Amino acid sequence: MVNSRISPLIIGVDVGATKTTAALVDEQANILNLNRKSTPTESSKILVRNTIELIEEIFNVSKACVKNILGIGLGVAGLMDFQKGIVVFSPNLPLRNLPLRDIVHHHFNVPTFLDNDANVAAMGEKFFGVGREVSNLVCLTIGTGIGGGMIIDDRVYRGAGGSAAEIGHMVIDPDGPPCGCGNRGCLEAFASGTAIARRAREVVNEESIIFRLIRGKIEDISAEVVVHAARKGDSLAKRILREVGEALGVGVANVINIFNPEMIIIGGGMAEIEELLTTARAEISRRALAPNLKMVKIVGASLRTNAGVLGAAALVLYELGKLT
Amino acid sequence: MVNSRISPLIIGVDVGATKTTAALVDEQANILNLNRKSTPTESSKILVRNTIELIEEIFNVSKACVKNILGIGLGVAGLMDFQKGIVVFSPNLPLRNLPLRDIVHHHFNVPTFLDNDANVAAMGEKFFGVGREVSNLVCLTIGTGIGGGMIIDDRVYRGAGGSAAEIGHMVIDPDGPPCGCGNRGCLEAFASGTAIARRAREVVNEESIIFRLIRGKIEDISAEVVVHAARKGDSLAKRILREVGEALGVGVANVINIFNPEMIIIGGGMAEIEELLTTARAEISRRALAPNLKMVKIVGASLRTNAGVLGAAALVLYELGKLT
Questions:
Q1: Considering the entire predicted model, what is its pTM?
Q2: Is the confidence at residue B3, as pLDDT, over 60?
Q3: Which of B134, B260, B286 sits opposite A163 (nearest CB)?
Q4: List of domains in chain B
């Protein structure tokens, strides 16, 4: 009788480029326990061991019994094979064709799921965040790169092979700058943190506040420096942010025209730059089809610091059919 | 006993800009009877009467009994409100906020469905055509404009308000030519029949075979004239088709990156121009993400002349849950 009302719990794990976080989460998205460490990038073996240790600590510290755990969700940046549970490739982690899902599953013997960070972010917002009330949403995470996740008719859309929603790799100008993916003119090559920094390095001059902020060391220019200079009134920095905001607006308008979603959620570090979003909104109004524009809400992400682990927990609940 | 094995039949209706076609179709996509007339464009009243007469003739000529008819499907070019069965707007027909579905339903009293021609084309290919074996496909119809229809996990994706899949209105170059939708640089403004003709009018000179073919009457330039000139070796016409093919390739690569579909089906008059498709394929190979490219088949539409009525019949079967 005593244990009969123990609420099922989930372990959500966010394997990020710099930090790995594991958390014990209940079905109402309360975080009961959280554990964070640097992500070791020397080898996949060390990274896997670190991930397993973090999960083990959750079990130990919280005295959670394996019987109470519905499952473990893993969110990883990069290209996943969802069906097989394999990290195919990760741009910032030493993982290639690694069956991470099965490794974790064999260790703990509870249902385990693996998906990319952008899908996980979309699931987090849909099931625990600002997207709860809608059935069709697109979640854009704009940081170093641009990730996309789509919820279509209440279901995660992964595409034929699990690599749908690569909205960052939608070309918005065929002659635009080269992108990390090998293509050129992708949204990511115009509107990510990396793109802002690269553009500033190309056009900076000695008159600009940017130049003073980095004391002439061009390689020190980052998106943060550009934003800082813009807020100090630097016209070059303001122009860069305006151009980036326009590009972002073109990309979001395309998403609106193609998906006719109820909601677009913009998260990630770049989403905090109000100047970008203001310009993007004006560009969206100019470019999106009127009926589609009328019904879409464009909002900021609601799950911030803990978006990764909550999204990974939502992945487990979703895959187990606990959320619909 | 005699009537017990009568196969259910569907009436598929294609209301096009120049012709309206109604056909009696069985569940195996056999056309048992077909009726075609010019589409009257003087008024919505006359257009509606014409549509109803065509359907009535199907009943009369085929002696089909209303009891045998599962339903009537209507495919119309333009923006539809699927839920309400309303033609919101049609670029080439005198229809605006017209509850066409209910008008037809009240007249014949059989289940009636209305959708736009691009969705209907996608359903036709999915259920009766080349898309039968796949669950995720995008169907592009390239004619005067560019229409898009999407099948996602075996279901038609209409978006929040029924106007998803406006792939023709995806911007591929922010500074590109103006588009009929009010935006600029849309795929449709680069790669439709209209776009080919407009581009040729802008750049034609007296040396070009195009100029000779139209005897100097610039307004007579059409996409067909450009293709004809290109096939006679005209370098200007060949350049135009190459540029248009490249733009089409950028658009299709974007679709591949965003949807990770199993199949892209290209139909419509422009899809018959082999030169366009060859250039587009080369551009797609350069621009699509490798894993997504590897798994997508890019094919021509399989339902040609009768795509409209077969698609409209597929709409009925799909909505009645007879196809899954």
A1: 0.90
A2: no
A3: B260
A4: 2-125+305-319 (3.30.420.40), 133-195+233-300 (3.30.420.40)
